[in-house]
Design goal:
This protein is 46% helix and 13% strand. The two termini are 29 Å apart. The strands form three sheets. Strands 1, 2, 3, 4, 5, 8, 9, 10 and 13 form a nine-stranded parallel sheet that branches. It has 356 residues and is α/β, with parallel strands linked by helices.
Length: 356
């Protein structure tokens, strides 16, 4: 099992030290978000300041960017990192695309994302082979490349492409064309197993692929701690992200699986009124425990073996501010890395039985 941490999210000046610290602790990979700072710039700095750490964006918002421009950036980071880069893509919701990024929303985001990923590979193929491009889709096309604009081949594979998802359609796209399946944090184990993984399986079958062709990241909110008391404190901190993401109607499919759509609509209405602090207070204890899977550190290997049998990698944020905490973190990371999992979801072993 690959174990990952995070970096970035703040000013770029802090990225080199954050990435080096993740590498020193023994993490296999580290991810940078794209909230108030640019993910590709952060990934570039992380790659330049590490030697072994796999660097990924989690996520880079795709639709406001030209796929050709993003392909060029990813190609450069892959070259500089000597093959350690994963480009994690996300679509963002309609309102943010239109009103924050000022780009069109032609609908069908899953179909559009499938084309986007295929065009990335078309650009990389042109870089690698020099062949004349001939990719034409409904949303994107790539038919022109001259030697002056072609950086040429690199000595490493194409960057891996990860895809963030919540709904069933994007899950199918991830199975069909992505290298890394990246379930959104607003997820439950029930939703993961009843909606996400079956639709990833459909995508795999459509693409003529198998579970070995994708790396699935363990999905959903988790709270780990040294003691049950630490876990309780961690659960309480989840009120903010659950209320924030739960206010977005695009994510209400997760609530619906648990018959909690009314809570989602309540959060949505409160968000329209700007009641962000008050929203946290309406999340009941039962919802916290429904969304979050928990474990003490000493039971993490058992947790991973039983709850993440489908995953090739998982994020594991561990305190490391003191020498004692660093020693503990390194021990926990090594123990989780030793775990061998099948990477195949229980009940979905035989893709021939999946209706595509």
């Amino acid at each position: 099992m690959k174990v990952g941490s995070g970096f970035g999210g703040g000013w770029l000046a802090g990225v080199p030290e954050q990435a080096r610290r993740a590498e020193e602790l023994g993490y296999d990979f580290a991810s940078t978000p794209e909230t108030s700072h640019d993910s590709m710039l952060a990934a570039t700095l992380a790659a330049a300041n590490t030697q072994k750490l796999e660097v990924q964006t989690s996520v880079t918002i795709a639709f406001p960017r030209s796929p050709t421009v993003l392909a060029m950036e990813a190609w450069d980071i892959q070259h500089m990192s000597k093959g350690r880069f994963t480009l994690g893509l996300g679509s963002q919701v309609k309102g943010h695309n239109q009103n924050r990024f000022s780009v069109d929303w032609p609908g069908a985001p899953a179909t559009r994302m499938k084309e986007y990923i295929r065009m990335l590979h078309a650009v990389w193929n042109s870089f690698r082979t020099g062949e004349k491009p001939d990719y034409v889709g409904k949303f994107y096309h790539f038919t022109l490349m001259t030697p002056n604009f072609n950086p040429g081949p690199i000595d490493y594979p194409d960057p891996k492409v990860g895809l963030a998802l919540v709904g069933d359609a994007m899950a199918r796209v991830s199975g069909e064309v992505a290298d890394v399946v990246m379930p959104h944090g607003f997820m439950t184990d029930k939703y993961m197993r009843e909606v996400v993984l079956p639709n990833v399986a459909i995508g795999l079958k459509r693409g003529g692929r198998t579970w070995n062709d994708v790396e699935i990241t363990g999905g959903g909110f988790t709270v780990f701690g040294e003691t049950e008391s630490e876990i309780e404190q961690g659960l309480d901190r989840l009120r903010q992200p659950i209320s924030f993401y739960g206010s977005t109607r695009s994510y209400h499919e997760v609530f619906e699986v648990h018959e909690l759509k009314s809570l989602g609509m309540q959060l949505h209405e409160m968000s329209l009124q700007g009641k962000w602090a008050e929203m946290q207070k309406v999340i009941p204890e039962s919802v916290l425990r429904t969304f979050a899977q928990t474990s003490t550190y000493d039971k993490l290997p058992e947790f991973v073996a039983n709850k993440r049998e489908y995953a090739a990698k998982m994020g594991l944020a561990l305190p490391s501010g003191t020498p004692e905490q660093r020693e503990r973190a390194q021990h926990v990371i090594k123990e989780v890395q030793k775990i061998q999992v099948s990477r195949v979801p229980r009940g979905l072993e035989d893709l021939s039985k999946v209706k595509a």
